[in-house]
Amino acid sequence: MIKNNKLISLVFLLAEAFVLTSAFTVLSWPAQAEITVQFSPRGGVADTIEERLTSARKTVDVAMYSFSDRRLQEKLIGLAAAGVKIRLILDSARDRAPLADRFEASGIDVRYVLPVMHHKFAVIDFAGEGAAPILLTGSANWSTKSDTEYDEDFLVVENESDILRAFQAEFDHLWLYARDFEGPAIADDRTPTPPAQSTKHLFTSANFEAYHRAGNWSFRPMVEPQDGVAGRAIVEAIEGASTSIKIATTHFRRPDITAALIRAMNERGVKVTVITDQQEFRGGRIPEDDSNALYEEEKLAREGASVLYKTYMINWRAPQARQMHSKYVIVDDALVLSGSFNWSKNSEIGSFENLSIWTEASLVAAYVANFEIIRTYDGDGGLATLLAEIAGQEGRGPCLFTPISLTIAQLEDLRRAFRPGSCR
User: pTM to 2 decimals?
Assistant: First the structure.
């Protein structure tokens, strides 16, 4: 039972009945509603997406930051050929135009929005008469790396009208102001309207207002980052914590969240554990006497938090990265906030993101188990084995290795083990 009143005010409690399976978590509602969660990089997410798309009968609306999986591209094209109405919002015209052209040629309506469209969700058959509506959401882009190399969380929601309605409203709001990759500009013929609001499923579109400029619609932020809906929800959840906070996030660049975590540790004795991606590591020792030079996770480490980096190469490069790409926090092993939202200023007021609040016991338990898997990554035998292998290659490699979770000090030791100039 969650006793903190602030935490209770933050969330809308759902039904408690659930069934737990070994492969994923299933939660049951009346009328056969259910939620399942899967975690990469063990594979299977792309299979689930394809399976759920196969069930589409009337409509598919997709908002996807990165869409490079050819199998899923072909699946959408096949659905369009079978008469399913498909709308697709991508991130930008410059980077996605070739993909948009291919989809448009197959009868799929494709648009983009400004600024960054960072969502990763799809709504299937929400308004389809006689069809079972489905939501696909989480941290995973529709890409091969998201399925087999990145750490991701991916949820399927079926027959739960409130959740689907929130995501459908977000898609429709962005679609209203989205731009075509080709074709005429959108006329200034409407009064800008705010997006729909949900107490459990938050969208950073609430931080923006639409405006017409140069023959098209754009969005601009209306709030400061600390006042945005997503970061504020995370801070409120942290303020309600009494025992533990477990964070798995690609980026950690929010001073307001750091301050809330430090208060939780120092004032209430909350145990904080952070796992982030090695790209966040500064590449050298933390300054001894300049606290202003500290990164956010380094500030937490100074205050006694357990800080780990998912590490898999000596010099970070995006094309070879095996990112810790989930973006979730677990509070008191009783509450999860997850979605596409990176913990940064840009995600709050420069991107369209989503953040959902979950309290279902078996769903939370699945996230706790996944966090423990990431926390205990030990490569092919641990840091000592890796260091011995590096020494055996006279500090020249291996440059890419099985992921291992390392503290700041351990990652510094690892970097020093390599000969300068190696792995460039």
Answer: 0.90
Using one digit for the tens of pLDDT, what is the confidence trace for 313-328? Answer: 998 999 999 999 999 9
In a domain, 219, yes or no: no
Assigned token pair, 267:
């004032």
130 CB burial (10 A radius; 0-12, 13-18, 19+):
exposed
The residue-averaged pLDDT of 2-17 equals 35
**Alpha-carbon distances, residue 424 vs 17, 283, 298, 318 (angstroms):** 53, 15, 26, 13
Q: Are 20 and 30 in contact (CB under 8 A)?
A: no
Q: Which domain holds residue 39?
A: 7-166
For 156, 380, 417, the CA distances from 391, given in Å and listed in that order, are 46, 16, 7
| CA–CA dist 249, 327 (Å, integer) | 4
CATH of the domain at 67: 3.30.870.10
Question: Cα dihedral angle (309, 313, 318, 321), rounded to 10 degrees?
Answer: -70
| 155 and 236 share one domain | no
Eight-class DSSP state of 413: H
Question: Quick one: 65 and 162 in the same domain?
Answer: yes
pLDDT band at 259 (very low <50, low <70, confident <90, very high): very high
Domain C-terminal end among 135, 166, 197: 166
The beta strands (E) that lie in 288-353 are given as 306-313, 327-331, 335-339, 351-352
**Please, what is the average pLDDT of the chain?**
88
Return the pLDDT at 155: 98
Token pair of 134 as six digits: 């489905």
The vertex-102 CA angle with 121 and 90, nearest 5°, equals 30
Calculate what percentage of the chain has a pLDDT beyond 70: 86
Q: Are 330 and 240 within one domain? A: yes
List all residues 6 or more positions away from 160 whose beta carbon is below 8 Å from its beta carbon. Answer: 29, 33, 34, 35, 135
> Which pLDDT value is given to residue 76?
98
pLDDT of amino acid 132: 86
